[in-house]
Amino acid sequence: MIYQLYYKTYCYLTKGEVTYMSQTNVIIQTIILGCLSAILIFLFYYFEAPIVDWAKQGDWYFTIIIAFIFSFVHGLFVSHFWDVLGVKAKLIKE
What we know:
The chain is built from 3 helices and 3 strands. By secondary structure, the chain is an alpha+beta fold. It has one domain. The protein has a 3-stranded antiparallel sheet with strand order 1-2-3. Strand 2 and strand 3 (17-22) form a beta hairpin. It is elongated, with a radius of gyration of 18 Å. The chain starts with a strand and ends in a 9-residue tail after the last helix.
């Protein structure tokens, strides 16, 4: 999880550890993840025919692996993107 603190530093909470990152590092990570996501989309369309052929031959696990990798990278990019813009989910207290 990422929480934006008052002094434009991001706090990552993973396995009980706290890591602080500057706004610049988060922006750089967002740019890198965005480029990686764009490269994956390009490669998917460039190698569309072999991927479809593998899927037709019964190698369906390969397409599932591709979907999970793309979903993971794109999800990280979108998460960082919205955090850099400052868009946060509204917390509802019960």
